[in-house]
Request: fold
Amino acid sequence: MREALTFKGGIHPLKSIHYGKSLSEKSAIQELFAGAVVKIPLSQHIGAPGKAIVQAGDEVLMGQKIAEAGGFVSVPAHASVSGKVLGIEKIPSVTGKPADAVVIENDGLYKKAYAEPVDFETLEPGEIIDLIKEAGIVGMGGAAFPLHVKLMPPPDKKINLLIINAAECEPFLTADYRLMLEYAGRIVYGTKAIMRALGVQKVIIGIEDNKPDAIEVMKKAIDTHAIRVAVLESKYPQGSEKQMIDAITGRVVPSGGLPMDVGVVVSNVGSVKAVADRLLTGEPLIRRVVTVTGSVGKPSNFMAPIGMSVEEMINAAGGFEGEPMKIMMGGPMMGNAVPDLACAVTKGTSGIVVLNKSYLAKKERETECIYCGKCAQACPIHLMPMQIMAYAKLGDFDKAAELGALDCMSCGSCTYVCPAKKHVAQYIKLAKDEIAAKKAAKK
Ligand code: SF4
Ligand code: SF4
Reply:
């Protein structure tokens, strides 16, 4: 086998006990049915929140649109069950701020209002993009950026490569891995539809070398020379867009730039499968694969309706095992801490990871920076994290900005490797927030 492709920097959490994929990787995707109610947030993506088009008392069908897109960078939301709208209420969210959600009482009948299936080869590119937007499809790797926006680059940005991101480099998560094993045909179909929408002739599916069976299954499912699999080194954050583009093409996305600046569009493998679902069955994005793992009775991969609560998901996976110390939505590296078990599964929820004390590093006292440079070696963006941290601590955020603080993607690699146990990434996050607040105040 050819040597796996990679990028400079990053870390190898798979060598630590925190890696955790073995807990759920053998768990085939199980369909989960919603409980008595679902609470579907209006803001599940980057961009403007959706605008509700239903009200208390309305009867809705599964797949029916319940919110319009709130702008160009926004998507509609759809009911994940059939039943009666109880109202729009504030529910807790991982952002820390309560979020508006459409609450639907589940009638248990799952009566559908799906659109008609359609063969993408009969559609013009613009029609495929409209259909993707109307189905509410966003990036399902965690960032939740509306997919149709990526497929409409400005005319001066010529796209010549589509990358399907199937790295799943975060510890513990196995949702994309199971999706490839169980839905390879759909992934290839959705990939071809996006190729047509974008007008590109070349696609590379990036998969880490710790998933050899998924690599084989995907290679077998591919029936065109236009699509191929690239084997990537298993390293965090390999699944970050810029690092994946660097590893596969050697192209470097400029500071503050986007993949389109180097002729690339990157889409998560889950989003590609969602495109195929819409085309083949008419189903909009109303459910997704979620890995529920860590300190739970039965780590599992579920096909879960959007709007189920974190508590219901954990109960479905056998409940807590031991005392939970931390619950993450997404992976333990770049995910968000869950402040309340009433938070809902959204389109971007790739996993729910419960960590008890056996998983969490013992709290160790921060000591002085010894200028070992390990944080700089690990930084995939090639920043000097220790210097940005030092200026952030001094409150000199202009200097932190000069050193590229805004390019930091909060991957946490610097904190992970620091022998002085410094919360490097957290200090840099503080600097980013201060710089952003200052910019906003100037507007
Ligand atoms: S890894 Fe920690 S101790 Fe080493 S230079 Fe960076 S901040 Fe300092
Ligand atoms: S958190 Fe930011 S500074 Fe630290 S390694 Fe990641 S990108 Fe670099």
Q: What stands out?
A: Residues 369-375, 386, 417-420, 422, 424 surround iron/sulfur cluster (ligand 1) (CB under 6 Å). The longest strand covers residues 83-91. Residues 388 and 402 are 9 Å apart (CA to CA). Residues 175-198 form the longest helix (24 residues).
